[in-house]
């Protein structure tokens, strides 16, 4: 029997449904691999072997009883720890939620269970998804499977490291400013942020509600399309979740077609490392071979995207994180003398430095006297950025940039300089501000033998088209057939 | 845009965060640098640009107004640090005069930075 950790999700699911391999065997193989790499990577915050094996056996029982499960039957899917899981520890990487067990599942997790997939442990992340390296987790940093001296990216670094190291076949993360696409790029896998409203946010612990997206990771475009198909679609529990029907994501790349891709003016210029530029240019040539016609597009307001993002996101975060007050869940400071004292000390003890920094910045930009100059102005610039994309899509089907300006940086390299960390999101935040779907594909290795990602951004609810073009590019590049993490 | 330590203490009160002196000093430096960067928004011509109030075209969606069962009360209070008789338990909310002059505790100064 082939090693289940080396199979694609679609292949593993096929074998499980055909009862050629049991979900339990698949689970055991992934548990063994996860424990093997955990000491060097620390991808997981919770990985309960007995419970997962029991859940895997329940999947086998459903198949034995004749239930038609989805193509992801028995496939282990690591769950970022800011997605709530019923009765299972959920911390969002924060001490303030240590010990909390949510009373319900996030919609995306519930849909995985219904589909017969196996939610596989809780993966590490920056605290409340605030970070680009997973170094801001309260429970230890995750390391990059390609080089443990480097970051896996973030904030969904545990999910990315788990999939890249074959500890899980698939993973869910959340992408607020690039938190899935950026770690996917840095770990050499595929990460996709769907259109805002495509996937329910119910049960995603809120960081910035207008920017947060539940988002999938996989090692191939075909696998990520299937994972998206399972979690997408209307949900009465999230008023921002769209009624837009979910298209059929099968037969990607099957029909001969031409398409246009727009290369963003300046996106391969100053600020992009020469090796990243080289690999992305090579991927652009592959897009042309795959049937694409190159056009040049401009996103004139994208230079303001990071500034816009850090005003809007921190404003929303300062409001969303007001709920952590020591009353309803998680940590409470000991022996409070009053409610005010309890809240002040609970939050001081429970939140890490990056979360405090963003709460303070968000409080500042929303405070009287500064609200118009920062928050309201940023929301006007946000509309301009959305308008830039609308104009670009008049001449192309997808917009192309590097996913990140550099390959994975070294542990500790940017922790003392928040702004340097924030600027690593320069290519990913515009799609969050505009609510557009974006995908990062591994396209080559940099001078340091670390993966480089190329990002394609598509039209609103244009995931089918985006995945179709990504499939053609993936086929042309063949990254997965040439490269893998060293161990 | 330089931020003073006093302003940071005011923000911390508004945000209900008890910061140490070392944290105040470090946050003051970081906030000054971050707000300095964010200043570039002031150079963008936003004339005629509407504020984004929701993402996408759909606007706010409403579901059918149908009563549905909620989560069991016991399950929702089970994760609380202190609960009793189906209620969240908290310390005394109204302090006796003089005993609890916690800064920022007033109901009416929430929108103002400390002078």
Detailed description of the structure:
The complex is a heterodimer of chains A (487) and B (115). Chain A has 487 residues and is of the alpha/beta class. Chain A has a single domain, classed as Amidase signature (AS) enzymes (Alpha-Beta Complex), CATH 3.90.1300. Chain A is built from 16 helices and eleven strands. Chain A has an eleven-stranded mixed β-sheet, sandwiched between helices. In chain A, strand 7, helix 8 and strand 8 form a beta-alpha-beta unit. In chain A, helix 2 packs antiparallel against helix 3, helix 9 packs across helix 11 and helix 9 packs across helix 12. Chain A is globular and about 65 Å long. Chain A starts with 8 loop residues before the first helix and ends in a 5-residue tail after the last helix. In chain A, 65% of the residues are buried. The model of chain A has no long low-confidence stretch (mean pLDDT 97). Helix content of chain B is 30%, strand content 3%. A two-stranded antiparallel ribbon of chain B has the order 1-2. Chain B contains three helices and two strands, in the order H-H-H-E-E. Chain B has a domain of 45 residues: Histone, subunit A, CATH 1.10.20.60. In chain B, 20% of the residues are buried. The two termini of chain B are 16 Å apart. With 115 residues, chain B is mostly helical.
